[in-house]
């Protein structure tokens, strides 16, 4: 999937022309596909927060339970005077649990493309840790980062990538992203990555098909966004959310399925959908611990530690060179 994002304007968002070109390319390819980062406009980000509160969506709760139990051990593994760089806007709860345990942290650098989300997380963390220097970076973490100069010399730079977001990347792109982290963390640095583990497929599928339909709304919001930002005319009643666990590939594959034969305007193009044609919008990969270790190895990284939540659903891996 096209998980690597285009160049951005100064406000960090792709321009309308870039967005249009990328969407047209995705809709002309076979099978049709759109990148999952398109979910996260303002409404999409709010819907994702509601997904995290659904009883079926175990990932966030398990990752928080993991940190509640193991954050002290994790912090000990990294040692004192860490510069913590987080990919994505920090969920205040997770980041707080980690920062509370770090000994004498040097600074916290949240990296986030959405300027409002970045501001919110900095305000929250600033209130919780008034002494800690915050160095927000409004940037796309899939691209090379220029990290701000730290306020004092850190012993170690740790890149924190929670939430199993790495699972949204196809394995080649995931390896490339891990390799990029390896460069940014430097010789002595480390990576802390949250990973959803393989488990009963019924449990996984339920997490992406909550009974309240929040995930379906989240997926369909992609079309709402394209209608608004590109003037498309997707009929929201003519597409359905479908999320299935592909055992062979070890991932949830989310599609938007056309409910009838139809044509949609996308800029100057008209895109034809057959009845029951499925457009790929998201992968969410699930890993066995050994599979994840092999993925890290391909990026030149080694698993130093692994922690799991009490139910063994979700893992945090500490990686080093
Ligand atoms: C935020 C990317 C980790 O893949 O589980 C939740 C996004 N998609 N429900 C995931 C998501 C559908 C989520 N990540």
TrEMBL record:
UniProt keyword Methyltransferase present: yes
Originating organism: Aerosticca soli
InterPro entries in the record: EgtD, EgtD_Methyltrsf_superfamily, MeTrfase_dom, MeTrfase_EgtD-like, SAM-dependent_MTases_sf
PANTHER family cross-referenced by the UniProt entry: ERGOTHIONEINE BIOSYNTHESIS PROTEIN 1
Pfam families listed in its UniProt record: Methyltransf_33
UniProt name for this protein: Histidine-specific methyltransferase SAM-dependent domain-containing protein
Signal peptide: none
GO biological process assignments: methylation
MF terms (GO), sorted A to Z: methyltransferase activity
Residue ranges of every copy of the Histidine-specific methyltransferase SAM-dependent domain listed in the record: 22-319
Keywords: Methyltransferase, Transferase
């Amino acid at each position: 999937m096209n998980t690597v994002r285009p160049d951005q304007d100064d406000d960090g968002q792709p321009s309308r022309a870039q967005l249009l070109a990328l969407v047209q390319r995705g809709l002309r390819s076979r099978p049709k596909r759109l990148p999952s980062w398109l979910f996260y406009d303002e409404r999409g980000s709010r819907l994702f927060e509601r997904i995290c509160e659904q009883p079926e969506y175990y990932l966030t709760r398990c990752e928080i339970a993991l940190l509640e139990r193991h954050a002290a051990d994790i912090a000990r593994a990294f040692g004192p005077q860490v510069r913590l760089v987080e990919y994505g806007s920090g969920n205040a709860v997770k980041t707080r649990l980690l920062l509370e345990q770090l000994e004498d942290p040097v600074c916290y650098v949240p990296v986030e493309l959405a300027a409002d989300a970045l501001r919110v997380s900095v305000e929250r963390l600033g209130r919780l840790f008034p002494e800690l220097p915050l160095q927000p970076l409004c940037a796309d973490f899939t691209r090379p980062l220029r990290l701000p100069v730290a306020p004092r010399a850190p012993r170690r730079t740790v890149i924190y990538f929670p939430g199993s977001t790495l699972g949204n990347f196809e394995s080649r792109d995931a390896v490339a992203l891990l390799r990029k982290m390896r460069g940014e963390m430097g010789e002595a640095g480390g990576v802390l990555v949250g990973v959803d583990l393989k488990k009963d497929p019924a449990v996984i599928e339920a997490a992406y098909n909550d009974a309240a339909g929040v995930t379906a709304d989240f997926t369909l919001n992609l079309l709402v966004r394209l209608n608004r930002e590109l003037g498309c005319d997707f009929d929201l009643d003519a597409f359905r959310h479908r999320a299935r666990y592909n055992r062979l590939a070890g991932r949830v594959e989310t599609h938007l399925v056309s409910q009838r034969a139809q044509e949609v305007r996308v800029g100057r193009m008209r895109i034809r959908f057959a009845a029951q044609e499925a457009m790929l919008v998201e992968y969410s990969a699930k890993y066995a611990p050994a599979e994840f270790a092999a993925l890290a190895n391909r990026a030149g990284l080694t698993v130093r530690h692994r922690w799991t939540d009490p139910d063994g659903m979700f893992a945090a891996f500490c990686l080093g060179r």
